[in-house]
Each structure stands twice: as C-alpha cells, then as structure tokens.
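Quick one: structure for this chain?
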Amino acid sequence: MLPGTEKEEIMKQALKYLFGVRIPHALGAIPEPRNKVMRLFTYEGILITLINNLVGSHNNLYAARLGAGDYELGLVTMLPQLVGMAVLIPGGILTDIMRNKRNMVTSALFAVACVYVLIGFVPALGSYKLGGFLALLALSSAPMTIYNVSWQAYFSDVVHPNGRNRILAVRSSLSFLMGITITLTGGALLSSASTNAEKIRLHQIFLWVAAALLLIQVYVLKKIPAQTDGERKTFSLVELKKAFVDLMHNRRFLGFVAVAIFFYLTWHIDWTLYFIGQTQYLGMNEAWLSYVNIANAIIQFLTMGIWSKINSRHGVRFAIIFGSLGLAFCPIGMILSTSIQTGNARLVFLIVNTIFNITLATTTLNILQCLLQVIPDSNKTLNISIYTALVMLSNGIMPFVGVSIYQMMGADLRALHTIFWVIFVFRLIATGLWALRWWVLRREN
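Got it. Here's what it folds into:
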C-alpha cells in the first residue's frame, strides 16, 4: 500500500488535472451565446444525470433496506422495464402527432416528479412498503420511458446530424462530472447513517430532491427554441401498420437492431448479479459502491473527448467496437476480485473495473447516433419506440434471468463465476458483430 502522504499527493494531482485542465476544456467547448442549443442541452443533461444518480443508482439499496431479497431485487429492474414497454408505442404515436415534441418531453418529466414524491412516502405503508415501492417504481417508468424516446426524437429534430456528436460529447462529459459529485455525496451520506431508518430517510430526501430537479429540468427545456412540424397530425392503425412494414424492409435498421439487441442481451444479464457480487461477496457498502461509480464516471469524463475525436475521424460505428470489448472484460474483473481471499479484493475490483470501463463512454455517445443514422424521418418517435421496446424487454428480463440462473446453480461463488465466464464469451461475440457491421458499412457515411 502507498504511504498516506504519497496517496494524498496522487489524489491532489488527479484533482488538479480534473478541475484545472479537463473541466475548463469541456466548458470551453461550449460556444458563445450563438450556440444556445448546445448549452441548454448540456444543462438539461446535467440535471437528468443528477436525478438518475439520486434515484436510479440507489434503487437496489432502497429496496434492500425495505426488505427485498434476491428475487425482489430482480423485480426492481424487471417491473419498470415491462411497464415502460407497455407505454412505448402509444407514447411514440402521441409524440409524433404533436406539433412540438418538446411538450411531450416536459409533460413526461413533470409526471415523473409527481411519482417520485409519492415513492418518498412508501416507508409509511408499513408491511406494504416494499410492494408499494415496487408498484410506484414501475409506474414512474412509464413517463420516464416516454421522456427518453421523445427526447431522442426532439433532439434529432432540433440538432443537425453534423452537430450531434459534439453536443452529445460535451453534454455527456459534463454530465459525468456532475454524476461524480452527486455519487460521492450520496454515498458518503448513506454510509454515515448509523441505522437502517436513517438510511431510508436519506433515500426519501433523495427522491424529493430529484422531484425538484425534474421541475428545473422542465424549465431549462422550455428555454430551447421550439421546433414545430406545421399543423397537428393525425394517426391511424393503417399508418401504424405502414410504419412497421417500412421498418421491416429497412435493411440498415434491421441490421443495426440485430447487433444492438444481442449486445444489450449480453450487457443486461449481469446487472443484478454485479450488485450481488459487489455487496455479498466483496462486502461493499454505500461508500465503496460510490467509489466504483465515481471511478467509472471520471474515466468516462476523461476519455469522452478522445472518443468524440475518433468518431469525427472514423465514424460512430467504429468506436463502439471498443466499447463492447471493454464491457466484455468486466466479468473477468468480477471473477478475479472475488477470487482473492484478502482485504484488498475490493480495491482490486475498483482498479480493474475502472480500467475496463475506459471505453464505456462510447455506449453513451455512439449507440444513439448509430440509431439515428438508420431511423427514417417519418414517424420518427414511433420508430425509436419500437427499437426502445426491444431494448427495454432485454433490460426487464435479462437481469431477472441472470439471477434465476444463479439461484438454480446454487447461489454460491462458483455459480457466480460460471455465469460470468459465459457472459464474457457472449460479449466477445457481440464485439465481433459490431466489428462486422463496421466492416460491411465502412464505405458509407
């Protein structure tokens, strides 16, 4: 282990580089007032990141403190995804017929804020508190899902394709930075609470603060110049059928979906297993979990500019290959760290997991741009909804599948390692598919 003074010096230099070089550089990438859209989308991205870190990243911990077991933890992921899928197509249709998609984005955020306020009161339900939490969490997924798909369509309407990579890079970079701050603060507060009741109270406060931030996010979005599509449109079942038929004949879309969904299947299956590995086998508390999240956010913040430049030179289909490869090695990090019978296992996991996440920023930056390349302009939100429904089906089912397999195999360390070895192989296959797609389309824009 490094001496205390040496560790302090390393931390000091890291912070100096982060706050003295990288942050000013990212801020400098935001142009003068003439590029108001970039600045507003950046602020909006920071707010949704704060909200997701206050609520989304703590859902498993909150559920566990309300009495959730392994299967209930699987439901924390599965139920919201299934509810979200149910509203995707109707939400996409409703968004497409609106003159200004921004109205759907802001309405959805307001609805999420209302549900978050209610979730904050579930501890008062006594023996029904866990059931109430799962039900309301699932309910909150409906407007949040509509926000996600309508935001993507609205963003593509407002921002020209040539400007998307730059705006997403700046937006994501500064969002990671704010995610570091809120994750560190939230983890420190939760770990400092001495009783379960105090920790639950903090989760309640996080939810209510997130609700307030959602209202501020609505205000920021209202400042973005409106993008209207003329007169209000109508939508019929005939048009819905035509939209499906058109997509089924869109070879570029089908090729992208095939690769992306297989990638997501291999990514989502270990989401709950990762939490089980971190808490049950590595003994990580709130502070350690926050260290992992912070390290991942920092490495993505520091590398976002690099991947953005690679996108500009080689296209967005190229860099995602490396993002998939990095995710493929994450299971190896879990296997390695849980095989070490020393007190340094958590530190080993933190270091190895951070190294493998060097390429993770490409998943945030590139997949959306790859999707927008193959989505037709007509019925854009509906088409995005169809794709998102498949992603959410994966996100809803695969973590539960992973936990179920783990339970059937004995729910022990050997079972955990076996599953992660299988995931490693399948993620290598996913990486090969991304590489094949890039090679086939390498001469296209």
